[in-house]
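Schema walk-through. Below, the input block comes first and the output block second. Nothing else is stored per chain. Lengths vary across the set, and this one has 191 residues.
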Amino acid sequence: PILADQARPSVLYPVGDETPHPIHVSIGDEYDIMGTCIHNIFAVYTPETDAAEMRKKAQKIVTAFGMNKMLPDVESILLSITSLYQFLEKRYGKPVKVEHEVPLRREINGQVVSGEMDLLWYTSPKECVLIDFKNYPGIMSNALNKTKEEYVGRYAAQLKAYEEALLDAGLTVKAKLIYYSVLGNLVDMNY
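--- output ---
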């Protein structure tokens, strides 16, 4: 894949003595549905929302997806996104704006590419951090191993397409990150 061999991923979080906050997942075979469910919870998350109200929203989403057995602990999902926001604020500063699920549709080399940028953390009106969520429930060392199917570098082309769209819109992309929410790890995608 384009850029996969050029990727130089590095784990940003957990940093130092910080503890990762993995999402508690029960064994199941519906990981795609689980991932969409987690994405939807993250998309409605705002730090300003009352914790009890946020728990209700999260539980409603889990129930609507039929994921109560696979995602039995909505608190762990909320702790995961809360920890990510705290890390981003510590590392990049308080955002001037946060956007979720930003649509992308563009032509690249004659092929139409479409998707959604999971999270844009604006450090200023013209600069942002791009974060993509992955809900891989495996082992982080596999995600960092170029010889494994789960290698994070395979997402480099996706992030490059997102970055180019943001650059075309007049934004500077300060960092390109992948958040492995189930594992509680954040990876900087250097390429």
